[in-house]
Structures are given as structure tokens and as C-alpha cells.
Amino acid sequence: QVQLVESGGGSEESGGSLRLSCRVSGLFLHDYEMGWFRQAPGKEREAVSCITYSTLSTYYTDSVKGRFTISRDNAENTLYLQMNNLKPEDTAMYYCAAGLRCPDDMTTLQANYWGQGTQVTVSS
User: Fold this and answer.
1) What are 10's strand-pairing partners?
2) Dist CA 105 CA 99 (whole Å)
3) Helix, strand, coil share (%) of the chain residues, nearest 5
4) How far apart are CA 8 and CA 114, in angstroms?
5) Is the peptide bond between 103 and the residue preceding it cis, with omega within 30 degrees of 0?
6) pLDDT band at 93 (very low <50, low <70, confident <90, very high)
7) Residue 103 contacts by C-beta under 8 Å, 6 or more apart in sequence?
8) Contact by Cβ (8 Å): 70, 22
9) pLDDT at 87 over 80
């Protein structure tokens, strides 16, 4: 059974930092392209970032470029999202996903496996 478990969310003030983790079990991370998505209350889900499995290329939505960094540790089967200089508009539930096409699925929002999400709240 494939499981993706996010952690690291919480409440931060504007300008602060958080590091999200996504621990994966039931599949080998090195075989999959991975991504982070988010959904704010009353808004549609949007792609945040993704990372390929072969070249380790990374892609970011414009609003987080220069502030967020996606990385993966295949040995630990864990995906990360370092979020710096947080803004109130980053407030959302953050989901990790596996088995997507990076970067194509940043537009389609499709993935084979999803976590349950971790809440990030940024106050001004």
C-alpha cells in the first residue's frame, strides 16, 4: 500500500520559514517524479513545485520562485519543500504527490498518489 505522509506545517509570521517533509512508503521514490501542490480555502488546488527523477530538474510556480526549494532524498524516501520568506498568500493546505509528469502535471494537476496534506498558515 502506497502512503505519502506530510509533516512540517504550522503557523508562521510573514517572512518566516517552514520546511515540509513528505515521507513515502510502498514505492521507491527514485522511480517517481514528485511534486507539491496547495489549496487555500475557497480556491482551486494549484501546483507549487515539482522535481524529476532522472535529471533532478526542478520547476516552480511563479509566485514561489526564489523563496521555495524542492528537494528529494531517495535514500530516505522523502520529499522536502523548504519555504522561506513566507507570505500570507502562502496560507493553504499543502499536499505532496507522486507519479506525476514534471512539469506537465503542474498544469493538469494529475498524479497517481497523494498525501493527506499539512496546513500552513502565515500571518501578516
Assistant:
1) 120
2) 10
3) 10, 50, 40
4) 16
5) yes
6) very high
7) 50, 59
8) no
9) yes
